[in-house]
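Entry type: protein chain
Record version: 2
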Amino acid sequence: MTLLQSYNSAAEEKDIVMNDIERPQMGEMPHAIIVEDEESLSTIFRKAIDMAGYSVEVISNGKEALNRLQNIAPNLLLLDLHLPQVTGEEIIEAVRQKPEFSDTRIILATADARLGNHIESKADLVLIKPIRFSTLKRLATRFNPSHAA
């Protein structure tokens, strides 16, 4: 049983099969999920990612994020490391184990530079807070599959 399944099993007492994960199709707006428990930051992150051309969904805790990631493989996952209930590190471990997420770009956003350095090989990018709005927008635009050259 994977970490993603085990958290849901504890909550719902059933196994999860991750066969029907939704992924934005060519021609559709790419989708981003922001997992950030600090509301003021999630608002800023949402605006920057939205301006980079994504549809955006914000989740405020790790358990909800794991549950949502059973149904969708976003193009971009912006992930805080210190989250309530399930850590960002646990989420990234679960996501990186699944082939459905092979095209998902992961940006870690953390104030914990040491932990960020420790797991940077599992992410596409590690940003140390505070993060400039313009920097996040520019980097998210680079990861946007509709802007790929």
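Comment: Residues 106 and 123 are 5 Å apart (CA to CA).
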